[in-house]
Structure to design on (469 residues):
RNA sequence: GCCCCCAUCGUCUAGUGGCCUAGGACACCACCCUUUCAAGGUGGCGGCACGGGUUCGAAUCCCGUUGGGGGUGCCA
């Protein structure tokens, strides 16, 4: 695949951050719309932290949001720690050409010197000492004087005064490469043309750009996108916030809804409609249109998107999407009592009642339970009126004789019973509903009775009446 | 401390000098529909942070203030 090359570089922290997912999606859209490549590089210079299981998690999570490793636009994954030799070689080149120098000062040394001189940070103290490599000698970049101009596709030109950038470390005292260096070397080696990443990296960009230039390469196109924040407008963090993409998948969010929602954080499709198919967003997405300010990750809006996507599913798709929760160990009914045909028939009335796929099982649990779990308070309340017992008995009698067991006649019968007891047609269903479903709220009653069947409906009504004594 | 970024309804956004009496979505409220709960329909509430410029005209351009965020590691 020729064309521009976009790199996506998560760190293997054991989960996939929703903010990272958005950046991945944007890189993915760009790679496709520009006929380029999405390069996945799992970044950590420490091989110890490149845990295979974490990496698999990243690849699974990417696949969930539609970024598949077998897509022709996908390249990788690469593992940064495997390229340590190249990182060190680049550092040595920088030293040989005078762009870097060795320094033997420890953190304590620097602190002491600053205290003595009333300065702050590292003041390039070893610049002209002519030190060579050796144990405890860190390699520092010799930051040139002048200014570094970073051209950023979303922010425009940002100017940094080099005098304010200290000579940063390239190689640690033990010889291992630092992230900043490794990052640039990898990007250059992989011929990355566009670096689209979170805004938090912007202040370090001049340093990286200087490394690119010192290494003799043309820097890539930079694009720093804003971060996602929580209610306190702080960057989403693992400790405080629910940031793992996998968590949303496990809780029953549809990937299409998540993808659509993530795309609208910091960017909006043309027109006034936010819910858009991926193909459309993929071709319309432009970095130049991305917002400059941080965005709040709003669970309520995500839920609304998810509800919309759930309602748009066909019954079959809905059933298939719900399976993991329907057959989970903690499902509200035994798996062997589940009936696909019943669920499929009920799907159109279940879907509008679900925020997540996980909600479905609880909406229809009574259909697949040997006996409904009767809520005592609900039952007491539903049978508190003087008419309720009569309604129950008359309905039972009428249902025993009903010719066609389907929603319409079931409804007509109950309405007639209600009127006979001086109630408004729609007001008699509470005791029936509780007797059948165990609760006062739930899916439409008559469709439920139709699916439950005459035998079971009558059995439940009799059982419930028996408790009244 | 120093550096950088940011600033439109509560939230996500549209807006690139006149189409703006600032549009849409989520949330919230009311009403309608109705068989409970939803969903759906209709309507409502609600915003250009502040102060100076520039201009015939500013949400839009410039400067400042304030507020928020991020960076500043021999972390990534």
């Amino acid at each position: 695949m020729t064309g521009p090359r976009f790199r996506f570089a998560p760190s293997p922290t054991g989960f996939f951050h929703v903010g990272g997912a958005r950046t991945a999606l944007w890189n993915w859209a760009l790679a496709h719309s520009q006929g380029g490549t999405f390069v996945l590089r799992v970044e950590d210079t420490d091989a110890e932290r490149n845990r295979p299981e974490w990496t698999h998690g990243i690849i699974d999570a990417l696949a969930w949001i539609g970024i598949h490793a077998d897509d022709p636009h996908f390249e990788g994954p690469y593992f940064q720690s495997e390229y340590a030799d190249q990182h060190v070689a680049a550092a040595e080149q920088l030293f040989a050409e005078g762009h870097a120098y060795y320094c033997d000062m420890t953190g304590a040394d620097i602190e002491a010197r600053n205290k003595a001189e009333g300065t702050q940070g590292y003041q390039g103290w070893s610049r002209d000492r002519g030190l060579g490599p050796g144990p405890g000698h860190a390699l520092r970049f010799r930051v040139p004087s002048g200014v570094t101009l970073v051209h950023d596709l979303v922010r425009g030109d940002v100017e940094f005064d080099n005098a304010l950038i200290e000579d940063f470390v390239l190689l640690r005292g033990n010889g291992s490469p630092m992230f900043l260096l490794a990052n640039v070397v990898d990007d250059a080696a992989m011929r990355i043309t566009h670096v689209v990443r979170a805004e938090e990296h912007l202040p370090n960009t001049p340093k990286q750009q200087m490394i690119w230039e010192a290494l003799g390469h043309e820097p890539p196109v930079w694009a720093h996108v804003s971060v996602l924040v929580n209610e306190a407008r702080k960057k989403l963090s693992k400790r405080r916030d629910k940031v793992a993409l996998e968590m949303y998948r496990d809780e029953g969010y549809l990937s299409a809804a998540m993808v659509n929602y993530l795309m609208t954080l910091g960017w909006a499709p043309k027109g006034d409609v936010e819910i858009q198919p991926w193909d459309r967003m993929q071709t319309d997405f432009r970095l130049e249109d991305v917002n400059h300010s941080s965005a709040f990750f709003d669970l309520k809006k995500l839920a609304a998107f998810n509800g919309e996507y759930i309602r748009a599913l066909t019954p079959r798709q809905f059933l298939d999407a719900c399976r993991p929760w329907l057959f989970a160990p903690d499902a509200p009914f035994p798996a062997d009592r589940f009936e696909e045909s019943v669920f499929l028939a009920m799907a159109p009335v279940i879907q509008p009642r679900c925020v997540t796929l996980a909600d479905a099982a609880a909406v229809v649990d009574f259909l697949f339970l040997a006996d409904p779990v009767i809520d005592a308070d609900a039952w007491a309340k539903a049978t508190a009126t003087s008419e309720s017992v009569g309604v129950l008995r008359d309905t039972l009698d009428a249902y025993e004789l009903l010719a066609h067991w389907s929603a319409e006649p079931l409804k007509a019968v109950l309405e007639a019973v209600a009127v006979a007891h001086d109630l408004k047609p729609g007001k008699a269903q509470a005791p029936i509903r509780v007797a059948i479903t165990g609760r006062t709220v739930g899916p439409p009653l008559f469709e439920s009775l139709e699916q439950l069947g005459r035998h079971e409906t009558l059995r439940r009504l009799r059982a419930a009446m028996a408790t009244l004594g």
